[in-house]
Every structure is written in structure tokens, then in C-alpha cells.
Amino acid sequence: MTTLLHIRGIARGINSPLVGRVTRNINKETELSYFLLTPNVDTKTTGHYIGILTSQQYEPTAQSGLPVVYRLATLSHLEEGDIVVVSPEGNVNTLYRIGSRHNTLLLTERCNSNCLMCSQPPKDRDDIPYFVWLYKKLIPMLPKDCRELGLTGGEPMLLGDSFFELLELLKSELPETELHILTNGRLFAKSELAKRYGDLNYRRSMLGIPLYSDYYQIHDHTVQAKGAFTQTVSGLYNLAKYDSRIEIRIVLHQLTIPRLVKLAQYIYKNLPFVEHIAFMGLENMGYARSNFELLWMDPVDYQRELTESVMYLITQGMNVSIYNIQLCLMPEELWPFMRKSISDWKNIYLDECQNCSKLSDCGGLFASSAKGAHSKFIKAFNS
Ligand code: SF4
């Protein structure tokens, strides 16, 4: 089952986006940053809210002083304390789910690369001022015991000064939270940017940076940007100079598999300072879907290359994980490195999985793989 993150109703009294937590408590008095969730707006409330979100079908008359979105198809996906942004058009987007370990802040849809397998293709529109505004509102509302948070894009480093402002805010508001930032690393080729990041001394922050080949032409072709390999590798060295925490991410497909073992050797010999290496199965979304014929490889067909690469790095003492691949597709020696990596809101299991004795250990599939875009070798283990 995937999770609903967006609903739409009819808005009244909302002139600009509002950000707040949600509650079903009709007597909430503690803070002003709550939306009341209620099936019926005429409920007698004594609390204070920034607005009301309701499944009521007709326009409310009572509580008329408050902004309201009515005729919402459902509210059941929202938990007490989730945080939403509500737009004047009646969109209710979930920004933070209290019960999830997979919360991610999308900082921009702009990117300076155009990867052939990008699951969320870049959009050339100036969304940065909106997202910066949004997250400056959101971050102080996040629960202080939030264990981990992702920052993603697009390319987050395109935010420039605003990226560092948000990072400073996160560091002061959520000092205990593990931060994972997905960046293509190219802008860190400017040493002053790497220094600025390093000077933050944000030890709970890790940069996830993709490297798709040891050979520059393959990397540049994969990310559709000339010079990207040189920039990313320069960026990695600049970041290492400031002792930044780095993860290398490698998406597995027809373009990366042929030199995978060589890439593993390159990483050990040239980038021994990286803290973690993630080998990642392909997500069939965005460009990956339109380039499916060009990219897709059944994981069973790259078992040999993946096993050799993982074992090589492990033998050298490096820290390795495998993401987004199902247990039944890999040899048992790789199972200790396979993680449940797919975000809960897009994670599914097939009918075949329901009788599998390893279901609770297996990370399952992306929802986007459901209609046949997955290995034909998925097969339940019988205990
Ligand atoms: S059958 Fe399903 S649950 Fe079992 S290992 Fe394969 S993908 Fe995972």
C-alpha cells in the first residue's frame, strides 16, 4: 500500500499558503499552528487553530472566521502531529509524517544535470524562493526527536546562500537529527563552497553523491552533462579536505554494470575517505520509465558484477549497502548488505510476496514497478 500525500478540496479564506500541524483535538489550546481535522465543521470547539480541514461536502457557515478547506475526499491518512501546507487553491500537501522514517524535504526541482534515469525530472522554474519560505516555516515545527531527515532536489546546492541558511536552521533546531543530503556534488568543485560546508562542522549531516563510472565519458553521458565527472570528483576531493561525511551512490543499469567492478576498485583506490557506498536498483519513474529499454537490467543478470564489487569493497574494509533490490534476486552472501531502503509511501509487495517466508526481511519493490516493471524471477521463499 502506498501513502496518500496530497488531497484537494475547496478553500475559503486562504490568501497565501499556510503551514501547520494537524490535530483532531477540538480543544487544542497550546499553540496557534494547528489545523483542526474534522468531518463536521459545526462541531463545538474551544481550541485555537490556523484553519479547518474537513470532509464536509457543503460550505461551512460556523467557525466562519477561520480559513477552511472543505469537500476533502479523506482525512484518514493524516496522523496527529503531521505537518501540512495548505494552498489558496485547496491543495493539502503533507510535508512531514510523524510516524515515518522517510521524511524528505524537496529543496528545488531545478538541476544542473539531467540524468537518464532521473526519477523526478528537473523542472526549469524558479521554485527556490517558495521552498526556502516553506522550509523556514516548517523546520522550527519539526519534532525535536525526529531521527532522520532527507534533503533532496533537483540539485539542493543551487539554493546557494539559502542552502546554508536552511542548514544552519536545521542544525540549531534539530541537533540530534541525522541529515542526508542528495547532491550531484558538481558545485563542490568550487573549493570555497566545500569550505563553507565544512566550516559548518555539521557532523550529523551526510552528503549522498552519485558516481556512475570510473570512466568520465560514461558518467557524463549518464548524467547528460559534459565535464560532470571531473567536477564531481574535484568536489569529492574538496569535501574530503574538510573532513565532510560522504556516501557514494551508484544506480545499477545497463550503462553502469559493465564497468561496475572497475568503479568499485576506483572508489577504493581514489576515494578511500568515503564513509558509505550504496548500490541502488533502478526506480522505474520519470526518465527511467521513458528510457526503460536503454537502462533496465534484470538484477539476476547483474548478480555476478554486483557480488564481485560488493565483496571487493568489503574486503578492503569499506562500508557497503544494497538498496531497492529484492532478496529473492540476490545470492545469500549479499543479503547482509541489503537494506529496506524504499520510502514507506512508495513501497509495495507483490501477490507472490504474501506467502514468502522472508517478507519481513525483504525491502520489497517500488510502487512504480507494480505493473510488470520488475524482475521476472521474483519468487517466494518457502520456509
Ligand atoms: S518474494 Fe517478495 S518478499 Fe519474498 S524475497 Fe522476493 S520480493 Fe521479497
What topology emerges from the helices and strands here?
Layout: E1 6-8, E2 10-12, E3 18-23, E4 34-38, E5 51-54, E6 68-70, E7 83-86, E8 91-96, E9 104-106, H1 128-138, E10 148-152, H2 161-173, E11 178-182, H3 191-199, E12 205-210, H4 216-223, H5 228-241, E13 246-251, H6 260-270, E14 276-280, H7 286-290, H8 292-295, H9 303-315, E15 320-323, E16 347-348, E17 365-366
Parallel strand pairs: 3-4, 4-5, 5-6, 9-10, 10-11, 11-12, 12-13, 13-14, 14-15
Antiparallel strand pairs: 1-8, 2-6, 3-7, 7-8, 16-17
Helix pairs in contact: 3-5, 6-9
Iron/sulfur cluster binds next to loops.
What keyword list fits this structure?
single chain, 383 residues, alpha/beta, 8-stranded mixed β-sheet, 7-stranded parallel β-sheet, 23% helix, 19% strand, binds iron/sulfur cluster
| Mean of pLDDT | 94
- List bound small molecules: iron/sulfur cluster
Task: Tell me the helix content.
Answer: 10-25%
Tell the overall outline: globular
Binned strand content = 15-25%
* End-to-end C-alpha gap: 25 Å
Helix-strand pattern: EEEEEEEEEHEHEHEHHEHEHHHEEE
Give me the Rg, rounded: 23 Å
Strand order of the largest sheet: 1-8-7-3-4-5-6-2
Please describe the biggest sheet, giving its number of strands, its sense, and whether it closes into a barrel: 8 strands, mixed
